[in-house]
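Narrative of activities, Objective 1.

The group set out to show that a structural description can be obtained from nothing but a protein's sequence at a throughput compatible with the screening campaign. Below is one input-output pair from the validation batch, recorded exactly as produced.
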Amino acid sequence: MPYWLDGTKGLPMTHANNADNQNVELFAQDWTALNECALWTHEQGSLSALQEGLLKRIADVIAHRVSMFDIAQTGAHGQTQFVRPVAYGMSAQALDDYYERYAAYDYTIWSFDTRVVDVYRDLDLVDVERRNGTPIYLEWMQPLGIYYGCTATLAHKATPLGSITLFRAEQDGDFTDSELEILRQIARHLSVRLHQLLPHGYAEGADESPASVLAIKAALLPREGEVLKFMLTGKTNHEIAVELYISESTVKKHVNAIYRKLGVKNRMGLMALLQP
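Output recorded for this entry:
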């Protein structure tokens, strides 16, 4: 389920030890990995392709336990809606819980400007003791075993495009200034590519892939749309479960919901919907 921010700009940010405030040195191996990720980003021809593979590639550059990537959609009154969330290393239920129950109460979302590319560490924005008493930390982060977070906002020419959030366990330490700078560079490239794919921002139907068209037509939930995308590539339920880090029984539940909403009984009927 999407969530809304009331207006596109939050409170002014003050960054403790932010990469903006000092010269951050990146080593040759950092630039090599960063360049590979950037090249891959610019090669993707659709929003679905970008969302499908980006988080795994970021994990190769910046070590983290779980991550999320969503797309921004600006409403008629300037509010920003975050839609189409995908995750890496996180169960479908955990992702759904965040967007349905906790996103609107996230202690960080009021503290950044969605209209510019920027990066921040969660604990640069809020006192750790105060954060550790919040429902999102106690009920969502702790069960996932995550403690530190950092986010990149995605934008182009004052148009919000989305966000990427990475999380780590406490024993892995917080994200370094160098890692924030790498994430910033990835966000800059990703914002350019998103703008090329969505020159007027995201709107329903902006991604005209077969899976997206069917998902919009049948009002599929975000996770059902992801399952449908893999079904249309011929992946089995087991393969889809591996891709999405969910159980095979959960995949079957989504498959049955997709069949019901699209009015088909099996994959043969599903593929028939793609015929002209």
